[in-house]
Amino acid sequence: MGFLMRHVLITGFEPFGGASDNLSWDAAAALARRPAPDGTRISAVRLPCVFDTSLTVLRAAVTEYDPALVICLGLANGRTEITPERVAINLDDARIPDNAGAQPFDRPVIPGGPAAYLADLPLKAAVAAMTAAGVPASISYTAGTFVCNHVFYGLRHLIATERPDLRGGFVHVPPNLPVERLTDGLAELVRICLDTDTDLAVSAGTLH
Fold first, then answer.
1. Catalytic one among 49, 72, 81, 85?
2. What is the dihedral sign for C-alpha 150, 156, 162, 165?
3. Is there a catalytic annotation at residue 85?
4. What is the distance between the alpha carbons of residues 45 and 78, in angstroms, rounded to a whole number?
5. Can 172 be counted among the known catalytic residues?
6. Suppose 100 and one of 7, 50, 120, 134 were both cysteines; which one would form an S-S bond, judging by CB atoms 3.0 to 4.6 Å apart?
7. How are beta strands 6-13 and 69-75 bridged, if at all?
């Protein structure tokens, strides 16, 4: 029997809103450069911060790499912790235009799709592992209504409708942590998501 390699796809976003870089992409690229655990390969793909093409690029990457796990990263200004997202909602409502100038409001991500999807990853166990590693982390219950949520919902819809064996979720990274600390935490999150089937049976509020 051949050796089965587990492939992990990490995505980050291009700069947006006039910024010259995007920490989500810096962290994704740094994680992909790190030595991966035995039997694991990590690839990073940069997504456009554009509603109409972000999911096209994500779908193409999933097709190309056929990963076991997809973790999409986004930057969350104002947060101070790595925050795995629990809920993706079927709503685009942009406060600012995306990088193509589009600013949709009150529009579904997927017409006819469910109102929301819940993440299926062991987020509580991941937060506990990141915290134990000295990286601040907590679960978030709002991914917003901009391109981050758009990608999160689109990924969960892809899993629900076409790729039931794929696991995936979205994680916001804060602007205040160095890339090295972010990748320390994200490496723990990936490890837990690959190796843990059952999440911790505790309230998320008790993990600090």
1. 85
2. positive
3. yes
4. 25
5. yes
6. 50
7. parallel
